[in-house]
Amino acid sequence: MSKTSVNARLAMIQAFASFMDNGSQSATVIFYEGVQPVDTSVAADSNNALVTLTLPEPCVKEVTPTYVELHPTNTGSVIKSGTAAWARIFNGAGEVAADLTVGTDITLANTNLALGGSFQVNSFKIRP
Question: How far, in Å, CA of 63 to CA of 70, rounded?
Answer without folding.
Answer: 9
